[in-house]
Design goal:
Length: 312
């Protein structure tokens, strides 16, 4: 009986995953995208070790070094990518800013995925009025733009509690706002998969054996619905990073003392046509490449984790 319970999970065949892996190795663009993304993640995680300067050092900001051009223009080997208007080494703040942007993106999407998966499982498995109620809530949430909700909430928070309080809690607030506004994407996707999975024989067998609904949902159905979630997870991280960058550019994101890629772009935009173009262009290129490779990985996962594509 114990072995029978283990067999109730409808496993993804080994041949399918070997097919996916061989397809990935043969796709040079996907491999290049993954290599670049891993490069970003490693350097972001190791920012304190690989950054030329410590951004927390009081001597890091030196106005005497302000707006120094990149080393290939100014021949100043101290600052590879130049400095910003506050005299900060641009390479150092970009490394720390990338780590901060990735942290916000991943944490926000984890909140989205946790809420969306739980709500989608309950809605799809329960059906009836529970399903209708939860999906109407999702429809209402989707009717509001993420940026609109974020702008309104962040503006109200700053008005009620002050900018000083907001700057202390900026990272947590951004994660919560971005995370709590995008969960319907996961919920609707999981619900659609659950509606198909719960009609299969292994779910009927689990019910006959008296296994609880909670165990059926999370132990047996959920593992077989995660393929589309991986695609959404990858794309949503990119979307969350873009949302944070947009909010920071509007002055509602991370403060200048905790630079993210968005706040660096915002701070450098005013110098774009004043001769110090690198202050805005280099962080912008860093953000564009990061978003591009994540979207390319998401597109590849969508194409190769689609069962119809595999069957063809």
């Amino acid at each position: 009986m114990r072995h029978l319970k283990k067999d109730l999970i409808h496993p993804t065949s080994v041949s399918r995953w070997s097919h996916i892996w061989s397809g990935f190795i043969g796709d040079k663009l996907a491999v290049l995208s993954l290599v670049i993304f891993v490069f970003y993640c490693l350097f972001a995680l190791m920012a304190p070790l690989v950054a030329p300067f410590d951004i927390n050092d009081p001597a890091f900001m030196d106005l005497m070094n302000a707006e120094i051009a990149p080393s290939w223009i100014s021949n100043d080997s101290r600052f590879l990518l130049g400095t910003d208007a506050q005299g900060r080494d641009l390479l150092s703040v970009i490394l720390y800013g990338t780590r901060l942007s990735l942290t916000i993106g991943v944490c926000a999407v984890l909140i989205q995925a946790t809420l969306g998966i739980c709500i989608g499982l309950v809605a799809g498995y329960s059906g009836g009025r529970v399903d209708n109620f939860l999906m109407r809530c999702a429809d209402i949430q989707l009717s509001f733009s993420t940026m609109m909700v974020a702008i309104v909430f962040l503006a109200i928070f700053q008005s009620l509690f002050g900018i000083a309080m907001y700057q202390q809690l900026a990272m947590i607030i951004l994660i919560l706002v971005i995370g709590l506004t995008e969960w319907p994407l996961f919920a609707r996707t999981i619900r659609a998969s659950v509606l198909a999975e719960k009609q299969k024989e292994y779910v009927d067998a689990a019910r006959v054996m008296g296994i609880s609904s909670k165990r059926i949902m999370f132990r047996h159905i959920l593992p077989n619905t995660l393929s589309p979630v991986l695609v959404i997870f990858t794309v949503q991280i990119a979307n969350a990073i873009v949302a944070e960058a947009a909010l920071s550019f509007l002055g509602l994101g991370m403060p200048a003392t905790e630079p993210s890629l968005g706040s660096l772009i915002s701070a450098g935009f005013s110098y774009m046509f004043a001769g110090s173009w690198w202050i805005c262009v280099i962080p912008s290129l860093t953000l564009i490449v990061l978003i591009l490779v994540m979207n390319l990985l998401g597109d590849w996962l969508r194409d190769h984790l689609n069962p119809r594509v595999y069957k063809d």
